[in-house]
Specification:
328 residues; 23 strands
């Protein structure tokens, strides 16, 4: 029994020695391969340089080097020739959406937007300074008269006026808590502002002061348009039609015989006004300076958004007199 145990122990020791020898041989091979790899990595640049000298002619290398130097010089000249400060990201204390800027002939710039945003530049647009608009509502882009008076309108009856070409702005009370369209000025300096729910304001001093008409009109009003003879026309929702024969100072309601929404009219060189609207509404105004007639034309088409639509089947109604119905 003792002999058997001794034999087993001897066999185990012999196997252990054999395995140890094999492991050492494997480790030696691994280290040898690692050493060869490191040597190749170290010698590779020198080998490539040697092959480069043998295989590539010196003239070719000089030509390539000259081209690279030339490209570097062109890039350097291009970079140094670009003026510094072309684009400057200005940080303003607002997160409002901003309208495109409006510049006066004197180089004053004004930017408006929602949340009552109002920025002014007095150096041609290089720098912008926020101003207090006195409102948190959306503001339309400003409108300037040829006298340098600026007017800004917007939501909730917002109305601001500048007397110094846009440098400073003063908030006025429009008396109308509703959206106001941008103003329209005649050559005589009469200003008219229209808006939602019958809002109608008039200025007879070039935009310095504004008076709100005590109108019983509750329909939305489009921006007014004036003919060469100073006749003003305002259209709007539900067939509203207002006419001014004194350059915009006063306005009278006229019958359009329409209940559909009407777009702003377009006047031809012959003084004929064409009004289109929803669901095929089409009106023709003739001799408007004498308030003679409005022709209602029945169409077989859908909404007419401008006066350029073609292929319209029409039926003319008998023109009706355009007498004043009420003054607003």
């Amino acid at each position: 029994m003792t002999e058997i145990i001794q034999q087993v122990v001897e066999n185990y020791e012999r196997k252990s020695r054999e395995l140890t020898t094999e492991a050492n041989d494997i480790l030696k091979r691994i280290f040898s391969l690692i050493g060869i790899g490191i040597g190749i990595i170290i010698l590779l640049p020198y080998l490539l340089n040697f092959l480069d000298r043998i295989l590539i002619p010196s003239s070719t290398k000089i030509e390539v080097s000259d081209r690279v130097d030339n490209v570097d010089l062109q890039i350097q000249n291009t970079i140094t020739s670009i003026p510094k400060g072309i684009i400057k990201n200005l940080k303003v204390s607002t997160i409002a959406d901003l309208n495109p800027p409006i510049f006066t002939d004197q180089g004053v710039g004004v930017i408006t937007g929602n949340r009552g945003a109002l920025l002014v530049s007095i150096d041609g647009g290089r720098n912008w300074t926020p101003q207090d608009s006195g409102t948190s509502s959306y503001l339309n882009p400003p409108v300037f008269t040829n006298r340098g008076i600026g007017v800004i309108t917007g939501i909730s009856g917002a109305l601001l006026v500048s007397m110094d070409g846009g440098r400073n702005w003063t908030q006025l009370d429009s008396g109308r808590n509703r959206y106001l369209n941008p103003p329209v000025f005649t050559d005589q300096g009469i200003g008219v502002i229209t808006g939602n729910r019958g809002a109608l304001l008039v200025s007879i001093d070039g935009g310095k002061n504004w008076s709100s008409w005590n109108s019983i009109e509750t329909r939305d009003l489009n921006t007014p348009i004036f003919t060469d003879k100073g006749i003003g026309v305002i259209t709007g929702s539900s067939g509203v039609l207002l006419v001014s024969t004194d350059g915009g100072k006063s306005w009278s309601s006229r019958s359009s015989n329409e209940t559909r929404n009407l777009n702003t009219p377009i006047f031809t060189d012959k003084g004929i006004g064409v009004i289109t609207g929803n669901r095929g509404a089409l009106l023709v105004m003739e001799n408007i300076e004498h308030l003679l007639s409005v022709q209602k034309i029945e169409t077989l088409v859908g909404d007419l958004r401008d006066s350029t639509s073609s292929q319209i089947a029409i039926k003319l109604e008998v023109p009706k007199a355009l007498g004043a119905e009420k003054t607003v």
